[in-house]
Write a structure and sequence with these properties.
alpha+beta, rod-shaped, Tetrahydropterin Synthase, Chain A, 358 residues, 4-stranded antiparallel beta sheet
């Protein structure tokens, strides 16, 4: 018993004895000299009781004294560092590199079995907890996933066998450099493919709109053009022929009969060997082996400009008339060149004079 408790007990016993003695003295009518004696006896009794209680305390061993108010010492904790452990991600062949400080504390085993390697069991417990999180995450989110692991592994949790508690500190999650480069290239290609796919869909929709709606027939094309040019009605009327040709070309068909009178006749391409450039110009493309500025080249341009082909039956008659024009204007050199160009019977009569038109 402590000193304060011992003193309290001594005072209590003394007061109790004094009260009993006072009651007995009043009841028995003790003489006056007995009261001082009673007081001395009570003091002596208090001293004796206090000594007796102190002797009991001294006789109890100090190391056997119970002190329930003192807290129990915490269980010792140990830690180990793991570095560069590969953990799977949601993409095959792209693994995270996990590093952390694993801390654990041993628990009382319910079956009393001994724990052989607590550090290995603690590391395995932490790796299992981390693997359950990383296995479903993409490898491109390693920085965000590191913070998630740091929060999830910061709690002391027991292992599946209930033999120890483990947690992880200073968690680090990285991805190898070559894998980062590959992911960046794949991301760029994927973005380009998405853009190309959208552009192709846009082009396909535009073709479907133009081919199946706007250019379905000439009337639809005219209405479409008029809707885009409401204040240009006369110009729309002038463009009906163009729209009819465009509609026919879009549908691989001929122009409808009711719109053929609005379509101009096609321009025939020049015959092979003749030049289709403007006549009377020295910049026309020369024939092979001829000088660019030759007269024969200009004469061919004139013939092509009039629309005569090399096998045209009227070409000889045209040559006769052209020779007459040159001779009528006293263009001797031009007449000689025309005669040389149209060599053969029919340009001259038997006497050697130019033939005249009947």
């Amino acid at each position: 018993m402590s000193g304060s408790g011992r003193h309290t007990m001594t005072v209590f016993v003394t007061l109790l004895l004094g009260l009993l003695c006072v009651i007995a003295g009043v009841a028995l009518q003790w003489p006056r000299w007995a009261w001082p004696v009673l007081a001395a006896v009570l003091v002596t009794a208090a001293v004796v009781v206090n000594r007796l209680m102190s002797r009991d305390d001294d006789g109890f061993p100090a190391h056997l004294t119970l002190e329930p108010d003192l807290p129990l010492p915490p269980a010792p904790r140990r830690e180990v560092r793991v570095h560069g452990v590969a953990l799977p991600s949601a993409v095959t062949d792209y693994d995270f590199l996990f590093s952390a400080t694993v801390r654990w504390s041993v628990l009382d085993s319910p079956d009393g079995a001994m724990l052989g390697n607590p550090s290995g069991l603690a590391v395995d417990t932490i790796l299992q907890r981390a693997r359950e999180i990383t296995a479903g995450q993409p490898p491109s989110r390693s920085a965000l996933l590191q913070h998630q692991l740091d929060g999830a592994l910061a709690i002391m949790l027991p292992d599946p066998g209930g033999r120890l508690q483990a947690m992880a500190l200073e968690v680090s999650l990285d991805l190898p450099g070559p894998d980062l480069e590959r992911l960046a290239k794949l991301s760029a290609v994927r973005k380009e493919q998405d853009v190309w796919e959208h552009e192709r869909n846009h082009e396909r929709n535009k073709r479907d709109y133009l081919g199946g709606d706007v250019l379905k027939d000439t009337g639809s094309a005219v209405v479409w053009w008029l809707a885009r040019n409401e204040d240009r009605i006369e110009e729309t009327v002038d463009r009906i022929g163009v729209l009819a040709r465009l509609t026919a070309a879009a549908n691989n068909d001929e122009v409808a009969p009711e719109f053929q009178h609005l379509v101009p006749p096609p321009v025939l391409p020049p015959e092979p060997g003749l030049h289709a450039q403007a006549p009377f110009t020295s910049e026309a493309t020369p024939h092979h082996g001829e000088e660019p500025s030759g007269t024969g080249n200009r004469l061919d341009d004139v013939i092509a400009w009039f629309g005569f082909g090399p096998d045209d039956p009227d070409l000889a008659l045209f040559g006769k008339r052209l020779l007459q024009v040159a001779e009528g204007h006293n263009k001797t050199e031009a007449a000689e060149e025309i005669r040389a160009r149209f060599e053969g019977p029919g340009l001259e009569d038997p006497a050697g004079q130019p033939a005249t038109e009947e």
